[in-house]
Amino acid sequence: MKVIDEILNEWSFRCHDGIVDLNDSTKLSVLHEIIEEYEINEAMLSLKSIQKRPDQFVNIFYSKKPFKIGSKTGDDFIIDKVIINNKTFEAEKKEEENKLSTEFGNVSSTRDIKLIGRLNNQETTLNIGAIYKSSDLGGQENSRGVRNENELINGINSAIEQNDNNPINIKFIAKEGPEIIVKGVKKAENMGYSGKKEGLKGDVILFGVEKDQNISVKKDGIYWWSSERKQFGDLLDKFITQGKEGKINNLIIKQNPLQNYVYDMIDPRDDKKYGQVLILNYPKVKENLENITFGPDKAKIIQRSFIPDDFSFEDDTLVVKTSRNMNGIEDLEEGDIPVIWLARHENQKYGIDFRTVPLKQIKQEPKRGKILVIDYNNTPALQ
S-S: 243 plus which of 117, 145, 253, 328, CB 3.0-4.6 Å? Predict the structure, then answer.
């Protein structure tokens, strides 16, 4: 329940009146935003996925295997009863599995399904959407860069096993950037969305004999620094209000006629939509540079799309080949400096994605129509 409570609390906090409402399209867009930030949108079970393969859910239910809440590493939820359309199915009555599979096909809404079981030894009732869609439930655990992180984690933990489960040293040796050495590593593990909720930048945590070290893993090619809706949300709100009033040069923001919670960024000179808007020289970016890039956990950044040949283990030391390493802000180059980036995203607040990305990435980013570049220093409406 911890994950659900966190999401509900966050949702309530971001709603202007503190009241959550699934029937309010604006508030629903805020929920979509939070779910994406938690990186669980595609990882959560849905009625559609169950109806496609009911046997996957049924097999786990009758085997007494626990379901996960929120993420692969989340709390165990043992389901004792499934109530569908007021019909009750009990985990102890395996002879009813065919009837349960059939009944899922008669459901039109998740509201018609209740899952009753034990979470942390307490009787709990949950909705289907609280269940993590693991691989045995048809999920793709290696999506969204997780596969790359898992390549690193598996390479490290495999080396630890080769070392009779004794701690190892790890050397990240890059084509570009300093060598990064982490000593006495006992285990590697994915940090998941919980770390991101705390504002941490690490994707992988290396548990050490003396201290732990967070590693931020970025695939080769384009990447982004962070979603800054919490920290810089006032800038986004001002961008919308001032843009709607036409106070930003070469920009007018209008409500989309088909989706009232989506706002279009339009060039008033030709009435065409902007695909991307960049805001340069926002002072809070410079003030928070280290936090945006390396986070409060001072994560080490390594960039690589890993393959098995990138790992070699000998004499208690695992050598990991990387494309680039960044140990601290002194390793950032001019093109790494974050800029504010806005783009169309229907599942985000205002229907607009709002992030910081490396300046150099703009040239690499796939074309999304017209681009407007705004200099914060020359735009009084945003100040």
Answer: 253
Exposed / middle / buried, residue 32 (Cβ in 10 Å: 0-12, 13-18, 19+): middle
Site of tokens 């994707």 = 203
| 3-class DSSP state of 329 | helix
Pick from 49, 95, 93, 42: nearest CA to 71: 42
CA–CA gap between residue 123 and residue 295 (Å, rounded): 38
- Asked whether the beta carbons of 61 and 103 are under 8 A apart, the reply is no
Looking at the DSSP assignment, which residues form a beta bridge with residue 318? 170, 313
- Residue 135 CA neighbour count, 13 Å, CB half: 4
Q: Report helix, strand or coil for 337.
A: coil
Read off the pLDDT of residues 343-373 as tens digits, 9 standing for 90 and up: 877 667 788 888 899 988 776 554 556 889 9
For residue range 79-123, list pLDDT tens digits in order: 999 999 999 999 999 999 999 999 998 988 888 899 999 987 788
CA gap 213, 327 in Å, rounded: 12
Question: Residue 38 in contact with residue 197, Cβ under 8 Å?
Answer: yes
* pTM of the entire predicted model: 0.62
